[in-house]
């Protein structure tokens, strides 16, 4: 142990004789270790965010969504009659699936559209959702004031509404919304509840769009179907022509008892809809559990790719160390000759130079770890600058930009010892050749070196 401590002391003394050169050589290792930890932290943060968004959809849920076939349109005929394009989930689909899925413990069907919502002189465009009481629990919503919809509201087709926090702020900035009237499509509804703020859900490819739950208005499903969406038909007028679409349900969410039942039940849902829709692709089946497994696989691939890219920095740093140590051997040729003349063995010379490279890379690794641990703080600072000085609003930002602003890097604990270990190993590997070159010097020739 005494010999080891003495060797390390000599290595540090030799490196401190050329502080600037040693510091610059160390930078390659510092930034290599920092980049490994930082990139893995960003990868973990992005992956964790994606998994949380998928989990928000429910790990035991199966979501069936109506989807307009891309090759079908509606238009007015020459007689002025408008053909109605019918697609998506029907009441028959709902009835058949509810009866043929024994593993289902709960189901919620919704119909939604964007409408002008008004209170006195204030108005806004909001997503009006016709739903049942189970919608709140299935979408992890929480009531802030008042209550949510009840079975009695649905059965009586009551004119009641529950509004989200964003709607409450826009239409009732001062007053308490509970008990106040709300106008939707020329009909008045009484506000019976206000929901708490909730984070937006993620968009899932082309199957499920992202949803801002803070601009919703919830009314009983039967009330929606009878007073807003009669017969499921929506009429639109564009450029002097009419179009009409008929959709009964935008989405039906089934909840099963166990995650083990999710995949088999989803297969039954797909087979049933394939048969009832005759192969018409006017629906999509989203299974969050499958997406969660895919997200976990992507995280592993993402970490491997990012780790490999960052590892290149360590490789470059190692090459820099070897280059400097070879130059050092040339500068210290006479010193090596004196040590050999005084009885030092080749193994002692190798040990001396390897210890210097290990101390150099190890110190760089420790500094890189310290910088890597600051990644979340630096990332928060960057987001603060972007939010307050770069962009005015996130409304027009891309999904990638919003994901960046919502993400928080998460330090992977295992990356700290791994990155430090690789930094020391890099110094060891790239220090072997210079050490061997120093040990092979002829003592007599080394003493003659000036």
UniProtKB/TrEMBL annotation:
Q: Does the keyword Cell membrane apply?
A: yes
UniProt KW keywords: Cell membrane, Membrane, Transmembrane, Transmembrane helix
Q: Where is the ABC3 transporter permease C-terminal domain?
A: 308-443
As for subcellular location, the record says: Cell membrane
Q: Name the GO cellular-component terms.
A: plasma membrane
Q: InterPro entries, from UniProt?
A: ABC3_permease_C, MacB_PCD, Macrolide_Exporter_MacB
A Pfam family: FtsX
Q: Which GO terms describe its molecular function?
A: transmembrane transporter activity
Which parts pass through the membrane? 20-42, 301-326, 366-390, 411-433
Domain MacB-like periplasmic core, chain residue ranges per copy: 22-269
Its membrane topology is listed as:
Multi-pass membrane protein
Keyword Transmembrane assigned to the entry: answer is yes
Q: Which family does it belong to?
A: Belongs to the ABC-4 integral membrane protein family.
- Quote the protein name from its UniProt record: Putative ABC transporter permease YknZ
């Amino acid at each position: 142990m005494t010999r080891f401590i003495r060797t390390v002391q000599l290595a540090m003394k030799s490196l401190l004789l050329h502080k600037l050169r040693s510091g610059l050589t160390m930078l390659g290792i510092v930034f290599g270790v920092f980049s490994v930890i930082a990139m893995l932290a960003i990868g973990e943060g992005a992956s964790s965010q994606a998994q949380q968004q998928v989990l928000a959809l429910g790990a035991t849920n199966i979501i069936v969504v109506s989807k307009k076939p891309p090759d079908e349109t509606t238009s007015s005929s020459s007689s002025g009659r408008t053909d109605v394009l019918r697609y998506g989930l029907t009441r028959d689909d709902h009835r058949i699936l509810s009866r043929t899925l024994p593993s289902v413990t709960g189901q919620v069907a919704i119909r939604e559209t964007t409408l002008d919502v008004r209170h006195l002189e204030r108005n806004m465009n909001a997503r009006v959702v016709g739903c049942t009481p189970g919608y709140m629990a299935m979408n992890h919503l929480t009531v802030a004031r008042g209550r949510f919809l009840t079975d009695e509201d649905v059965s009586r087709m009551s004119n009641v509404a529950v509004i989200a926090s964003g709607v409450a702020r826009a239409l009732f900035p001062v007053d308490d919304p509970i008990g106040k009237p709300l106008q939707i499509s020329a009909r008045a509804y009484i506000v019976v509840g206000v929901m708490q703020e909730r984070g937006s859900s993620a968009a899932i490819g082309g199957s499920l769009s992202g949803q801002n739950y803070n601009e919703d208005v919830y009314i009983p499903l039967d009330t929606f179907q009878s007073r807003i969406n009669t017969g499921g038909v929506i009429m639109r007028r564009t450029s002097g022509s009419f179009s009409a679409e008929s959709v009964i349900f935008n989405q039906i969410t089934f909840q099963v008892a166990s995650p083990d039942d999710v995949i088999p039940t989803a297969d039954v849902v797909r087979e049933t809809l394939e048969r009832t829709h005759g192969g018409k692709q006017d629906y999509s089946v989203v299974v969050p559990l499958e997406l969660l497994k895919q997200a976990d696989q992507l995280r592993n691939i993402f970490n491997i790719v990012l780790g490999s890219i960052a590892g290149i920095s360590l490789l470059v740093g190692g090459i820099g160390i070897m280059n400097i140590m070879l130059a050092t051997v040339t500068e210290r040729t006479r010193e090596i000759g004196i040590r050999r003349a005084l009885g030092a063995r080749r193994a002692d010379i190798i040990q001396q130079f390897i210890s210097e490279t290990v101390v150099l890379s190890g110190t760089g690794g420790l500094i890189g770890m310290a910088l890597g641990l600051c990644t979340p703080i630096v990332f928060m600072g960057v987001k603060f600058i972007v939010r307050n000085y770069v962009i005015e609003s996130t409304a027009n930002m891309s999904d990638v930009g919003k994901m960046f602003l919502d993400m928080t890097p998460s330090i992977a604990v295992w990356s700290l010892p791994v990155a430090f270990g690789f930094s020391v190993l890099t110094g060891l590997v790239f220090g072997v050749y210079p050490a061997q070159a120093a040990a092979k010097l002829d003592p007599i020739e080394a003493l003659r070196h000036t």
